[in-house]
Amino acid sequence: MATIKRRAYREWDYWGKPVPGFGDPKARVLVLGLAPAAHGANRTGRIFTGDRSGDWLYRALHQTGFASQAHSVSRDDGMQLRDIYITSAAHCAPPDNKPEPAEIRNCRPYLERELDLLQPKVVVALGKIAFDNYLDILKSRGLIASRAAFRFGHNEHFRMGKGLPVLVSSYHPSQQNTSTGKLTEKMLLDVFKKARKLSGSPSIRKSPAARSTLPSSLPDR
Protein backbone atom coordinates (compact mmCIF):
# COMPACT_ATOMS: atom_id res chain seq x y z
CA MET A 1 0.00 0.00 0.00
CA ALA A 2 3.05 2.34 0.09
CA THR A 3 3.76 2.09 -3.64
CA ILE A 4 0.49 3.69 -4.81
CA LYS A 5 0.72 7.40 -4.02
CA ARG A 6 -1.61 10.31 -4.52
CA ARG A 7 -0.30 13.01 -6.82
CA ALA A 8 -0.22 15.51 -3.96
CA TYR A 9 2.14 13.23 -2.04
CA ARG A 10 4.27 11.86 -4.86
CA GLU A 11 7.44 13.34 -3.29
CA TRP A 12 6.72 11.72 0.08
CA ASP A 13 8.62 8.67 1.25
CA TYR A 14 5.63 6.71 2.58
CA TRP A 15 5.98 5.00 5.95
CA GLY A 16 4.46 1.81 4.54
CA LYS A 17 4.90 -0.31 7.71
CA PRO A 18 2.72 -1.22 10.69
CA VAL A 19 1.74 2.04 12.40
CA PRO A 20 2.27 1.94 16.17
CA GLY A 21 0.09 3.54 18.82
CA PHE A 22 0.93 7.06 19.91
CA GLY A 23 0.48 9.10 23.05
CA ASP A 24 1.02 9.45 26.77
CA PRO A 25 2.31 6.19 28.31
CA LYS A 26 0.52 7.14 31.55
CA ALA A 27 -2.76 7.83 29.79
CA ARG A 28 -6.06 7.29 31.54
CA VAL A 29 -7.91 7.33 28.20
CA LEU A 30 -7.24 4.97 25.29
CA VAL A 31 -8.73 5.76 21.87
CA LEU A 32 -9.27 2.76 19.60
CA GLY A 33 -9.62 3.43 15.88
CA LEU A 34 -9.97 1.10 12.92
CA ALA A 35 -6.83 1.09 10.73
CA PRO A 36 -4.26 3.44 9.17
CA ALA A 37 -5.54 5.37 6.17
CA ALA A 38 -3.65 4.64 2.95
CA HIS A 39 -2.57 8.26 2.46
CA GLY A 40 -2.76 9.30 6.11
CA ALA A 41 -0.99 7.25 8.77
CA ASN A 42 0.38 4.85 6.15
CA ARG A 43 2.13 7.89 4.64
CA THR A 44 3.15 9.78 7.78
CA GLY A 45 3.81 6.89 10.15
CA ARG A 46 1.66 8.27 12.95
CA ILE A 47 -1.84 7.18 13.78
CA PHE A 48 -4.65 9.51 12.55
CA THR A 49 -2.07 11.87 11.06
CA GLY A 50 -2.33 13.46 7.62
CA ASP A 51 -5.97 12.73 6.75
CA ARG A 52 -9.45 14.17 7.27
CA SER A 53 -10.33 11.79 10.10
CA GLY A 54 -7.23 12.90 11.98
CA ASP A 55 -8.10 16.55 11.38
CA TRP A 56 -11.38 16.01 13.19
CA LEU A 57 -9.94 13.84 15.94
CA TYR A 58 -6.99 16.02 16.90
CA ARG A 59 -9.07 19.19 16.72
CA ALA A 60 -11.46 17.65 19.25
CA LEU A 61 -8.58 16.44 21.43
CA HIS A 62 -7.03 19.91 21.39
CA GLN A 63 -10.30 21.57 22.36
CA THR A 64 -10.76 19.16 25.26
CA GLY A 65 -7.19 19.57 26.52
CA PHE A 66 -5.80 16.18 25.47
CA ALA A 67 -3.59 17.44 22.60
CA SER A 68 -1.04 20.26 22.47
CA GLN A 69 -2.18 21.43 19.04
CA ALA A 70 -5.16 21.11 16.74
CA HIS A 71 -3.40 19.90 13.60
CA SER A 72 -1.47 16.68 13.07
CA VAL A 73 0.44 16.57 9.79
CA SER A 74 3.63 14.58 10.41
CA ARG A 75 5.61 12.67 13.04
CA ASP A 76 7.81 15.75 13.46
CA ASP A 77 5.14 18.42 13.92
CA GLY A 78 5.60 18.70 17.69
CA MET A 79 2.28 17.11 18.63
CA GLN A 80 2.12 16.01 22.26
CA LEU A 81 -0.75 14.15 23.91
CA ARG A 82 -1.73 14.50 27.54
CA ASP A 83 -3.42 11.67 29.42
CA ILE A 84 -4.55 9.99 26.19
CA TYR A 85 -3.15 7.27 23.93
CA ILE A 86 -4.34 6.42 20.41
CA THR A 87 -4.16 3.02 18.75
CA SER A 88 -6.12 0.95 16.23
CA ALA A 89 -7.66 -2.46 15.68
CA ALA A 90 -5.46 -3.06 12.59
CA HIS A 91 -2.00 -1.56 12.22
CA CYS A 92 -1.42 -1.85 8.46
CA ALA A 93 -3.35 0.08 5.81
CA PRO A 94 -5.96 -2.31 4.34
CA PRO A 95 -7.27 -2.24 0.75
CA ASP A 96 -10.18 0.21 0.44
CA ASN A 97 -9.73 1.12 4.13
CA LYS A 98 -11.64 -2.04 5.08
CA PRO A 99 -9.59 -4.51 7.14
CA GLU A 100 -10.55 -8.15 6.90
CA PRO A 101 -11.45 -9.98 10.14
CA ALA A 102 -8.21 -11.97 9.83
CA GLU A 103 -6.16 -8.74 9.78
CA ILE A 104 -7.82 -7.54 12.95
CA ARG A 105 -7.25 -10.91 14.65
CA ASN A 106 -3.58 -10.82 13.65
CA CYS A 107 -3.16 -7.39 15.23
CA ARG A 108 -5.16 -8.14 18.37
CA PRO A 109 -2.13 -9.22 20.48
CA TYR A 110 -0.67 -5.73 20.06
CA LEU A 111 -3.85 -4.11 21.35
CA GLU A 112 -3.98 -6.54 24.25
CA ARG A 113 -0.39 -5.65 25.11
CA GLU A 114 -1.18 -1.94 25.00
CA LEU A 115 -4.18 -2.42 27.27
CA ASP A 116 -2.09 -4.38 29.76
CA LEU A 117 0.70 -1.78 29.78
CA LEU A 118 -1.55 1.27 29.99
CA GLN A 119 -4.37 0.00 32.20
CA PRO A 120 -6.60 2.93 31.12
CA LYS A 121 -9.63 4.12 33.01
CA VAL A 122 -11.63 4.71 29.80
CA VAL A 123 -11.57 3.15 26.33
CA VAL A 124 -13.11 5.23 23.53
CA ALA A 125 -14.04 3.01 20.56
CA LEU A 126 -14.34 4.91 17.27
CA GLY A 127 -16.80 2.93 15.18
CA LYS A 128 -18.57 -0.38 15.62
CA ILE A 129 -15.70 -2.55 14.38
CA ALA A 130 -13.37 -1.13 17.03
CA PHE A 131 -16.17 -1.45 19.60
CA ASP A 132 -16.77 -5.13 18.76
CA ASN A 133 -13.05 -5.88 18.67
CA TYR A 134 -12.57 -4.54 22.18
CA LEU A 135 -15.55 -6.55 23.44
CA ASP A 136 -14.11 -9.68 21.78
CA ILE A 137 -10.93 -9.21 23.80
CA LEU A 138 -12.90 -8.99 27.02
CA LYS A 139 -14.90 -12.07 26.06
CA SER A 140 -11.78 -14.08 25.20
CA ARG A 141 -10.37 -13.22 28.62
CA GLY A 142 -13.56 -14.31 30.36
CA LEU A 143 -14.34 -10.78 31.54
CA ILE A 144 -17.76 -10.60 29.86
CA ALA A 145 -20.11 -13.43 28.88
CA SER A 146 -20.98 -12.07 25.42
CA ARG A 147 -21.27 -8.91 23.33
CA ALA A 148 -25.06 -9.09 23.35
CA ALA A 149 -25.49 -6.83 26.37
CA PHE A 150 -23.58 -3.99 24.73
CA ARG A 151 -25.27 -2.11 21.93
CA PHE A 152 -23.18 0.31 19.89
CA GLY A 153 -24.37 3.89 19.72
CA HIS A 154 -22.84 7.32 19.62
CA ASN A 155 -21.64 8.74 22.96
CA GLU A 156 -22.92 5.79 24.93
CA HIS A 157 -20.89 4.46 27.85
CA PHE A 158 -20.78 1.10 29.56
CA ARG A 159 -19.41 0.25 32.97
CA MET A 160 -17.87 -3.15 32.33
CA GLY A 161 -17.24 -4.29 35.88
CA LYS A 162 -14.86 -3.78 38.77
CA GLY A 163 -11.34 -3.00 37.64
CA LEU A 164 -12.22 -2.67 33.95
CA PRO A 165 -12.16 0.57 31.93
CA VAL A 166 -15.43 2.29 31.14
CA LEU A 167 -16.19 1.76 27.44
CA VAL A 168 -17.36 4.81 25.48
CA SER A 169 -18.65 4.32 21.94
CA SER A 170 -18.50 6.94 19.20
CA TYR A 171 -19.10 7.21 15.50
CA HIS A 172 -15.80 7.13 13.64
CA PRO A 173 -14.68 10.57 12.35
CA SER A 174 -14.50 9.22 8.80
CA GLN A 175 -15.17 11.57 5.92
CA GLN A 176 -18.32 9.61 5.16
CA ASN A 177 -19.69 10.37 8.63
CA THR A 178 -18.50 13.96 8.90
CA SER A 179 -19.47 15.08 5.39
CA THR A 180 -23.02 13.74 5.78
CA GLY A 181 -23.55 15.25 9.22
CA LYS A 182 -23.87 11.88 10.92
CA LEU A 183 -21.02 13.07 13.14
CA THR A 184 -20.65 16.77 13.97
CA GLU A 185 -17.81 18.54 15.78
CA LYS A 186 -20.02 19.04 18.83
CA MET A 187 -20.88 15.34 18.91
CA LEU A 188 -17.20 14.40 18.87
CA LEU A 189 -16.34 17.02 21.49
CA ASP A 190 -19.03 15.62 23.75
CA VAL A 191 -17.41 12.17 23.55
CA PHE A 192 -14.06 13.44 24.80
CA LYS A 193 -15.62 15.67 27.43
CA LYS A 194 -17.33 12.54 28.73
CA ALA A 195 -14.09 10.54 28.53
CA ARG A 196 -12.27 13.18 30.57
CA LYS A 197 -14.97 13.20 33.21
CA LEU A 198 -15.24 9.41 33.46
CA SER A 199 -11.46 8.95 33.62
CA GLY A 200 -10.93 11.60 36.29
CA SER A 201 -8.36 13.30 34.09
CA PRO A 202 -7.49 16.85 35.19
CA SER A 203 -8.36 19.60 32.74
CA ILE A 204 -4.81 20.88 32.26
CA ARG A 205 -1.39 19.58 33.15
CA LYS A 206 1.41 22.01 33.95
CA SER A 207 3.78 20.23 31.56
CA PRO A 208 2.66 18.10 28.60
CA ALA A 209 3.71 14.48 28.38
CA ALA A 210 6.51 13.64 26.00
CA ARG A 211 5.57 12.01 22.72
CA SER A 212 5.86 8.30 23.17
CA THR A 213 4.97 4.87 21.96
CA LEU A 214 4.70 2.00 24.38
CA PRO A 215 7.62 -0.42 24.59
CA SER A 216 7.24 -3.68 22.75
CA SER A 217 4.00 -2.54 21.13
CA LEU A 218 4.85 -3.30 17.51
CA PRO A 219 7.74 -4.84 15.61
CA ASP A 220 9.63 -2.70 13.11
CA ARG A 221 9.81 -4.25 9.71
Topology at a glance:
Blueprint: E1 22-23, E2 29-33, H1 41-44, H2 52-63, E3 84-88, H3 101-118, E4 122-126, H4 128-140, E5 156-159, E6 166-170, H5 175-180, H6 185-199
Parallel strand pairs: 2-3, 2-4, 4-6
Antiparallel strand pairs: 1-3, 5-6
Helix pairs in contact: 2-6
Textual characterization of the structure:
It is a single chain. The protein is an alpha/beta fold and 221 residues long. The chain has one domain (21-199): Uracil-DNA Glycosylase, subunit E (3-Layer(aba) Sandwich), CATH 3.40.470. The protein has helices at residues 41-44, 52-63, 101-118, 128-140, 175-180, 185-199, and strands spanning 22-23, 29-33, 84-88, 122-126, 156-159, 166-170. It has a six-stranded mixed sheet, sandwiched between helices. Helix 2 (52-63) packs across helix 6 (185-199). It is globular. The protein starts with 21 loop residues before the first strand and ends in a 22-residue tail after the last helix.
CATH topology: Uracil-DNA Glycosylase, subunit E
- What is the multimeric organization of the chains shown? single chain
Question: Sheet with the most strands?
Answer: 6 strands, mixed
The ordered string of helix (H) and strand (E) elements is EEHHEHEHEEHH
CATH superfamily: Uracil-DNA glycosylase-like domain
Mean pLDDT: 88
Second-tier CATH architecture: 3-Layer(aba) Sandwich
Give unreliable regions as ranges: 205-211, 215-221
Q: How many distinct domains? A: 1
Cα-to-Cα separation, first versus last residue: 14 Å
Instruction: Please report the first level of CATH classification, the CATH class.
Output: Alpha Beta
- Describe the strand arrangement of the main beta sheet, using strand numbers: 1-3-2-4-6-5
Helix content: 25-40%
Based on secondary structure, the structural category is alpha/beta
Radius of gyration: 16 Å
Residues in β-strands, percent:
5-15%
Number of helices: 6
Indicate the overall shape.
Answer: globular
Please tally the β strands and state the result: 6
